[in-house]
Amino acid sequence: MRRKTRQIHVGNVAIGGDAPIAVQSMTTTYTRDVESTVAQIHRLQDVGCEIVRVAVPEMEDALVIGEIKKRISIPLVADIHYNPELGLEAIRQGVDKVRINPGNLLLGRKSMEKIVLAAKERGVAMRIGVNSGSIDALDKVAQMQRVQVRLRDDGTLERSDPAEARRIERENLAERMVTRALEYISWCEELDYHEIDVSLKSSTVLTAVEAYRRFSQRSDYPIHLGITEAGTLVTGSVKSALGLGLLLAEGIGDTLRVSLSAEPEEEIPVAFEILRSLELRNRGVTFVSCPSCGRVEIDVISVANEVEKRLSKVQTPIQVAVMGCVVNGPGESRDADVGLAGGKGKGVIFRKGQVVKTVPEDQFLDAVLKEVASLLPAAEASVVYPEGGIKEVAGTHRTRDEGMNLPILPRA
Predict the structure, then answer these.
(1) Which of 176, 200, 212, 248 makes the best surface tag, with the fewest CB within 10 Å?
(2) Are residues 235 and 304 located together in one domain of the fold?
(3) Do 27 and 124 fall into the same domain?
(4) Which are the contacts of 163, defined by CB distance < 8 A and separation ≥ 6?
(5) How far apart are CA 38 and CA 317, in angstroms?
(6) Does the predicted TM-score (pTM) go above 0.90?
């Protein structure tokens, strides 16, 4: 059961309550560069981003928020640190939400109260962000803790337990994070302001999980999930899937961001895949493909990657399978809305469990995308399968006798 929280609104997107878990990201452009920022937001919208955050480190960035807001159609969040005037200007510019860490605002509570009153007057939401690194966290978590041995008076040896020491330290840090978040919330409540959600992020998965669990037991404000500074595409995706997955499976979380050292457009598919895997959102392509192994007689890796890339903008729920052997291929392909079961230079195309046709390897891409497009609304179909069809070829020819050969050339 999903934990029931009070509901707030960020622009036209509901957060908490019975609303779907919303997926967010953050731009990497200099916000003052309006053209680049708007272009990146549009790319994020194309792959399903529902709320976008921009950095506002200086007044020059705050002053262009109004112009950016006019040119996008998803809610805009201003990320504010240190200078409260940046938050006040962002609110004047019409931002939908401000994200602040009250612990690093100059003049602390006094500055926080100014922003709260301005947000309350304009109907602007606020995310209170508490990061483990911002509340004086010791850096011991990242250090190797060695087993220590000492001789007791009775002559026996006593060994330390580094895992237990880390657990105690993690719990203490998580408790401090939660206590601080609840204190900040109380400042807002004293001003009769409640349009708040809260994040308690850490780059250490278990610390973040512990903090979110504790907060969810003591407050009904919506929770924004994230593992901060999670890492590159692979490490960040794994850490985020593990941490966010644990919490979401327990019913904790109302909105999330997967933070990656990658283009922000790469964060959105990972976030939706986490939600789809837990059956919390049914949006976009559920993609099934087999690992390449010694049974496979097509270049399933290249074909699968190319198909998935070309379906990245699809928002209609649909399942697509790309399989490369006779063991699991036919079954998985029949179960999908559109499936390919390939082998020995040719492949069978399935649509809703029925065999549509058999095609040679150089037509895999065209055949799969054409069938997918036939199941999509017209706007999405034209992106997936443009007029004139797919001319490119994915993959290389592969047989057990010949190995991997040269790329297939399109037929004349």
Answers:
(1) 176
(2) no
(3) yes
(4) none
(5) 27
(6) no
* Whether the predicted pLDDT of 299 surpasses 90: no
Residue 148, classified by CB atoms within 10 Å of its CB into exposed (0-12), middle (13-18) or buried (19+), is exposed
Flag whether 189 is in a domain.
yes
H, E, C per residue of 64-123: CHHHHHHCCCCCEEEEECCCHHHHHHHHHCCCCEEEECHHHCCCCHHHHHHHHHHHHHHC
Phi/psi at 163 (5° precision): -65, -40
CA distance 40 to 55: 13
The residue type at 186: S
357, two tokens: 């046709």
Residues 72 and 34 in one domain: yes
- What is the tens place of the pLDDT at every residue in 104-117? 999 999 999 999 99
Average pLDDT score over residue span 148-152: 72
Residues 289, 209 share a domain: no
Known binding residues are 290, 293, 325, 332
Residues within the annotated binding site for [4Fe-4S] cluster?
290, 293, 325, 332
Q: What is the mean pLDDT of residues 288-300?
A: 76
pLDDT value, residue 409: 58
% of the chain beyond a pLDDT of 70:
90
- Are 32 and 60 in contact by the 8 Å Cβ rule? The answer is yes
The angle at the Cα of 393, spanning 387 to 399, to the nearest 5 degrees, equals 150
